[in-house]
Specification:
The protein is an alpha+beta fold. The protein has 9 helices and 4 strands. Helix 1 packs across helix 6 and helix 4 packs parallel to helix 6. The chain is globular. The two termini are 33 Å apart. It binds glutathione. Glutathione binds next to loops.
Length: 249
Amino acid sequence: MPHYRLYYAPGACSLAAHIALEEIQLAGLGDYATTRLLLAAGDQRKPEFLAVNARGHVPVLSFRVDGEAQTLTENLAILRLLAGRHPQAKLLPADAVGAARAWEWLSWLATDVHAHAFMQVFYPARYAAEAAAQAAVEASGRALLRHCWQDLEARLPRQVLDAGAGAQGYALGAFSLVDACLIVFFRWARRYGFAPQEHYPRWTALTQRTLARPSVQRVFADEHITLDDPLPARSKPAVSMSSFGENAA
Ligand SMILES: N[C@@H](CCC(=O)N[C@@H](CS)C(=O)NCC(=O)O)C(=O)O
């Protein structure tokens, strides 16, 4: 049975891979252990983690293929590996069009939403040196995110609102990696004051359905997170372009 190790930070984008691994484990298809990093404490920049991923990012997945150790970085690559190695876990639609729809969502979330918009809100000091310019960067990220949330809500199918939709009440009908990612962004949106629960009924209903899954319950307990965790105060003011990681997800 395949065995994995996931390097993760609580509530970070690694949460989607954590949920995928738990789905695989609950289905009896593989097992995993975790190494926890605290981004606010700078664990991602410590030599022992940089030896695992020189980019200083979670998630990282380690596993063996034919006895040989492999280390895989990048969220989408990790999700792709887990879905491809464990088709019985049904983490992606089996048909080509359905799978492409999933990647349409996943790539948009990883690029436009995470790498482009959210990074400006998380780390304005990486984009500008002066406090006023940093405030403008953050405001730009927030405006982009509001647009993303409207786009996201409009693209979710109406049936996610049906209380009786059950196992077909997810973003693509059946549960998939898309839902595992959407709950990460819903939690971030709450923490950063976008109040998605007040403005986006489809995304909220979908999140509640995803949250009720045994895999998600277990992972949230394991990471010691909830949907309602408040944002901790920044440990340092965002004043330096070399100030990385002070405002983690
Ligand atoms: N391109 C990477 C980005 C991963 C990433 O940004 N991870 C964040 C957590 S959500 C991180 O580790 N941040 C630490 C830092 O930037 O110092 C991926 O998609 O996996």
